[in-house]
Every structure is written in C-alpha cells, then in structure tokens.
UniProtKB/TrEMBL annotation:
Organism from which the protein derives: Ilyodon furcidens
Keyword DNA repair annotated: no
Highest taxon in the source lineage: Eukaryota
Keywords: ATP-binding, Kinase, Nucleotide-binding, Transferase
Protein name: Inositol-pentakisphosphate 2-kinase
Swiss-Prot/TrEMBL catalytic activity: 1D-myo-inositol 1,3,4,5,6-pentakisphosphate + ATP = 1D-myo-inositol hexakisphosphate + ADP + H(+)
Known function: Phosphorylates Ins(1,3,4,5,6)P5 at position 2 to form Ins(1,2,3,4,5,6)P6 (InsP6 or phytate).
Amino acid sequence: MDENDWKYHGEGNKSLVVSHVQHCRVLRLLKYPAEDSENPPQTAEQAFRQIQNIVDFSSNVMSSLLGDKVVHSGEVVRLPLEFVRQLSIKIQHQRPAWRCDKVMDIYSGCALCLPNLTSPTLHQPTPPAPPLCIEIKPKCGFLPSPKHVSKDIKTRVCRYCMHQHYKVANGKWKRRSLYCPLDLFSGNRQRMHFAIRHLIEEPQNNLKVFKGGQCIYSSKEGSNESPDMNSLLHHLRPYFLQGNNRINGHMTTKAVLNDVIQVLVNALLSAAGGDGGQVTDRAGEGRSFCEASLFNNERIRHGSQGLPASSVLSRILQTQMLDTLDIEGLYPLYRRVEQHLQDFPEERTRLQIDGPYDQNFLEKVQKCWMEDDGSVEYAAAKVT
Ligand SMILES: O=P(O)(O)O[C@@H]1[C@@H](OP(=O)(O)O)[C@H](OP(=O)(O)O)[C@H](O)[C@H](OP(=O)(O)O)[C@H]1OP(=O)(O)O
Ligand SMILES: Nc1ncnc2c1ncn2[C@@H]1O[C@H](COP(=O)(O)OP(=O)(O)OP(=O)(O)O)[C@@H](O)[C@H]1O
C-alpha cells in the first residue's frame, strides 16, 4: 500500500479519517492521547477487537434500529505498519491544531474501512455535476425525563442550547449558534427550516458540506471568521436552477438558500425504509420544545405534526430515546454495575460489558423501556 494514494479527510474526538484519491473508500483509524504516543494504550489485538466491536454494534444494533439502507458498517482491515507510519507523517500538517492533543494510532495496523459517503459511486457514465454531500450532527432531539434530573432548567432548555453558552464562554466557538435540535426533530416544516438555516449560518461542528468529496464549507474552531456562506451558495446555485424562484433567469442568493433547506427538510422527512404512517409526537409529553429556541413559540401551536414514523429523523429520535435518563439517572446505574463487577469480576462476560454486540445484545437494548427492577442486568443494559 502506498500512502500517496490516501489523503487527509477529517477527524473527530475518537478517530481520524483518510480517503482514497481514486476509489470511493475511507479508512477510519483510532486516535490516542498524545502523551500515550510512546506507549500505545492497547495491544494490536485489543485494537482489532475494539474496531470489530464497532462493526458488530453498527451491523447488529444500529442497522436494526435505523434501517439497513442507511447504515454502513464497513469492515476491519489490517494495514502494513510502515504504510500507517508514513501516512501519519504525511497528513500531520493538515490536521487542525486543536485536534493535535491526540495522535493517530500507528501501532496496531488496524482500521475500519468504509465507503466514502462524501463521494458516492454514481451509476452514471458521466455524472452531470460532482455529487453534493451534507453532513449533519444533529445532537439530542428531546428533553430528559423530569424523573431523573435535579435541576428544573434541564426539563425546559435542551443540552445543546445550554452547551452553547458554555462553549462560547470558554472560547471553543466565537458565536452562539441559534440552531436547536428540538426544532430540527419537530417534524414541523417551518421549525425545521429555521433550524437548518441556523445550522448553515453557524455550522460549528454540526454541519459540513462536501462537493465531489472535498469539504467546501465548515467552521474552524476558535476562529473569529464565519465560514463564507456566499461562496457556499455560489457552489450550490448550479444544482438549483430549475426552481421558480428566479428573477430574470437568475436565482437570488436567498432563493438558493431556501431551495437547499427545502431539499434537506424533504430528505430528513423521507422514508428510511420499513413501516410508515404513524407519527412520533413528543408534544404530549411536553418534551418537544426548548425554551432557548428563538423560533416563535406562537407559531408552534398552529401545527406541530410530529415526525412520520418511517422517516430518517424519526428513526434517529427513537434510537436516541432509548436513553432518556440523563447523566443524573445513568450515573447511579453505572455505579451499580461497577460495584457488582468489583464483587464478581467474572460477570463481565455474561453482562456483555465488552461485547460481543450480537442479536442477544440488541434484545437487551430493546428491553430498555422496562422500569428499573433494581437488577444489575437492567443497569448493564442501560450503561453499555
Ligand atoms: O457531550 P457532547 O454533547 O458535547 O458531545 C461530545 C462531542 O461534542 P460536541 O458537543 O458535539 O461538539 C464531541 O465531539 P467533538 O470532539 O467536539 O467533535 C465527541 O463526539 C464526544 O464523544 P466522545 O467523547 O468522542 O465519545 C461527545 O461526547 P458524548 O456526550 O457523546 O460522550
Ligand atoms: N464513511 C465516511 N465517508 C466519508 N467521510 C467520513 C466517513 N466517516 C467519517 N467521515 C468524516 O470524518 C469525520 C470524523 O469521523 P467521525 O465523526 O466518525 O469521528 P469520531 O472521532 O468518531 O467523532 P466524535 O468526535 O463524534 O467522537 C466526520 O465528521 C466525517 O466528515
């Protein structure tokens, strides 16, 4: 393998991604804290198992919850160590400085190989234009159950909106985003439109736009400058020329933005495969509106239709809602498991703390709606 066939693509807190320059493939490599760079924190076999667990969790649990049409699980691959070392040197200067508290894993020679979702293989001999890909990290779309929280504010203002104040105060981002996940997950088209417009205006790490596999729009952490929305809309204009919003054959910037948002709302409400018809409506539970959202409260009363059950967003929300406990409800369960494992370390395997994430594990996750019966089995299913 040749490191020159691969280029830096992006990274998060846990992994670094490189893409192949010709084929629609990416490699997702583990990251370790920089202070561990001399001594890898796990053996190659442990790293292999960690990545295999990710594949199993994705194919046996997430595929079943979200729909196998929208989940790509990939496969674990073993790579020559020399290739990985050269790759790490090659991409180092492209990494954002604020992510360099961690280093790419150059010891295990293991990675997750996935299709490159930012430049999908198109089954057309000459595609009309480079494919567009819009990545959204929507965050949690509901308020935690009042049963488990000690501060009343948590039942009125969502975690994302509270975090915005914290992130601006500590300098992570310069401006507060007016995006609210509860607006996006509302199923109300106007609220969703409002949410996506604010995601585009202040994307932080919740939205990226790729054209032909290249990132053309994203935020830079700590930077004073906002990403250039006019340049983004200039890139997008040719994709939206067939609408009615043209003045003398020319589309205004505002019209391009509206069309882009409309396409995204339609995609998010479209079926992910499987059953349809019902709606996911949290309005009755009083957990679907965040007081920090600037969306006009009055307008919500005139049409909160909820999400179509088969939609991608509804699937994501239902999956998120398997965990409604908030950290305050979860931590005592974590302590219950911890205590049990101190007394009975051999129980780690039976409770599937480190996997395998198989059919049996999925059944435990799905039973999570049950009330807490005080058992370690209940706690382990919630915590793992
Ligand atoms: O806690 P949050 O909501 O800030 O989410 C963390 C993310 O921050 P965000 O707010 O999206 O910028 C954070 O993302 P970034 O590092 O900011 O890109 C991670 O995804 C983190 O997950 P983990 O610790 O790697 O498992 C996320 O932590 P978990 O809450 O998933 O543990
Ligand atoms: N299959 C893929 N195709 C194209 N790009 C991808 C793919 N998987 C990940 N990426 C890109 O790489 C970036 C980092 O990947 P990912 O979010 O999986 O990292 P992470 O460290 O697990 O994230 P987090 O910070 O949430 O823990 C993503 O934001 C996305 O832009």
